[in-house]
Amino acid sequence: MIDNYQAQSGVFYGVGVGPGDPLLITLKAHHLIQSADVICYLANETGSSQARDIAQHSIGSRNESSIEIAIPMPMSTDRTAANTAYDLGAKQISEHINQGKSVVFLCEGDPLFFGSFSYLLERLSDLHECLVVPGISSVNGAASALQQPLTLLQESFVVMSGRHTDVQLEQALMSHDSVVIMKAGRARPRILAILDKTGRTADANYLAYIGRDNEEILTDVTQLANTAGPYFSLFVVLKQERLS
To answer: What predicted TM-score, i.e. pTM, was given to this entire model?
Structure first.
């Protein structure tokens, strides 16, 4: 069954390609990428796509007649512009599905964990059959890179975002043993200040571009520049004295 697994006609697949290492793409995702009629992904203004870069080895062995769709996504916090891009992308995808084609959407990490696929699923799930293939999230990738457990025994664990308010981040850091703050990027100076304020600077680790050639890991965040960082970065905050 593994060798014969193929994308089915008229189905829209959300496929997680993991945090960066192409070897972390699941076999199911690999077979779907290879066999789908259409591959689509988000791209920036220059046409570059992180998801496609991660999946390039799987894409490279596809049929020459296959189709690729790059959905341009404005690199801003303007939700109106983003929603317009998702509307246009959903329309393109729907047109291909209506022609009986199988469509795979590539998503960094896991499609339903801070995943862009969620916004397309919302637009297409009532119109077409949609299936989801989970991927390894950056949270799991970060724990593996650090070789540190995210939680042990009764330790509490929460995932936050750099888009949360100062008060929300402070409450999470004060209330939970393990805290992951994703999408650190522009919020990095603010997060560093909040870590200092809550007394958790020594507990914090910083990672960017996990599993990629330009991977960055800092276990001492006092060495981190107090400036904005890359979008694909996160803080992993773990108690130094763990439960045993």
So the answer is: 0.90
